[in-house]
Amino acid sequence: MRPFDLTAPTTVEAALATPGTFLAGGTTLVDLMKLNVLTPPRVLDINALPLRGIDTGDGLRIGALERMSDIAAHPGVYPVISRALLLSASQQLRNMASIGGNLLQRTRCTYFRDVATPCNKRHPGSGCPAISGANRMHAVLGTSDHCVATHASDVAVALVALDAEIRLANEHGERTVKLADFYRLPGETPEVENDLRPGELITEVVVPRLDWAARSTYVKVRDRQSYEFALCSAAVALDIRDSHIVDARVAAGGVATVPWRLPEVEAALRGAPATLASFEAAAALAAEGAKPLSMNGFKVSLLKRTVIRALLELTEGSHS
């Protein structure tokens, strides 16, 4: 780790007026600093900022500095969000990591985290060795010739499924962005991962009110049962009336370069009976456009099965 200056602003205004890299829980930033992947000359500890609180009065509003464990335990949080958080990392990390930091965490691609290897995210134009290298954990959706790294966040998948927005502040004011629009596909500029502008800070996560999201879940498939990133995941919410699906929200993780909404699956589910046959027909559309690599072709069928598993979990055996 290289030397750096550390300051601790106590107001949002002071934080935005001071150049530097923001530190909340530090569960991503500190790791990458130790590896010299990130070498900020100045770090701003923002934990004293008034960016906390969980409000469930009309929808869901979460301060950016709220810890993952506290959000997961809150009784007004939709099950898909709570479950995604509980399946993330370890209890110790969840006690430290903030929701804002989680949404900004960097990929776990081993080539990105190894400064001895080329990586277009670290050094644009240097190449992407994962394309022809060890790519079992990498993306099959949303990839480009410049990057195939998966997005690491679990809760981002749940939030994208629920049409969540984030509030961003800078020296000139505030703006609100849909989380799905915030993340950027790698294209020819994989080093630009999101729409966060220089000096900008996430202040709040806002989830619209969706009463039927009480019937929701997050299924995560991984190599081991704890402290492991997803091979594939599915965030699903269903509105079921008279044994038919009125509406659905479905998003996938572990298979794409960004949290991946599945609108074709949602459309196929709407109006269909809540049966296994309907789930299979809808899930067959989940991997449309997939581009498997040499070691991760299994993710195509795994994605379909994971979506079906989440749908079955929500219908509690009522399918036939």
Total strands? 12
H/E element sequence: EHEHEEEHHHHHEEHEEEEEHHH
Shape: globular
Main sheet: strand order: 4-5-8-6-7
Task: Please state the structural category.
Answer: alpha+beta
Instruction: Report the C-alpha radius of gyration, rounded.
Output: 20 Å
**Major beta-sheet overview:** 5 strands, antiparallel
Q: In which range does the helix fraction lie?
A: 25-40%
End-to-end C-alpha gap: 57 Å
Q: Kindly estimate the percentage of residues that lie in beta strands according to DSSP.
A: 15-25%
Residue runs with pLDDT of under 50 for 5 or more positions:
none
Average pLDDT for all residues: 96
Keywords for this entry:
320 residues; alpha+beta; 5-stranded antiparallel β-sheet; 4-stranded antiparallel β-sheet; 25% helix; globular
What does the model show?
This protein is of the alpha+beta class and 320 residues long. Helix content is 25%, strand content 20%. Strands 4-5-8-6-7 form a 5-stranded antiparallel β-sheet. Strands 9-10-11-12 form a 4-stranded antiparallel β-sheet, sandwiched between helices. A 3-stranded parallel β-sheet has the order 1-3-2, with no helix packed on it. β4 (54-55) and β5 form a beta hairpin. α4 runs antiparallel to α7 (155-161), α9 packs antiparallel against α10 (276-283) and α10 (276-283) runs antiparallel to α11. The longest helix is centred in the last third of the chain and has 18 residues, at 298-315.
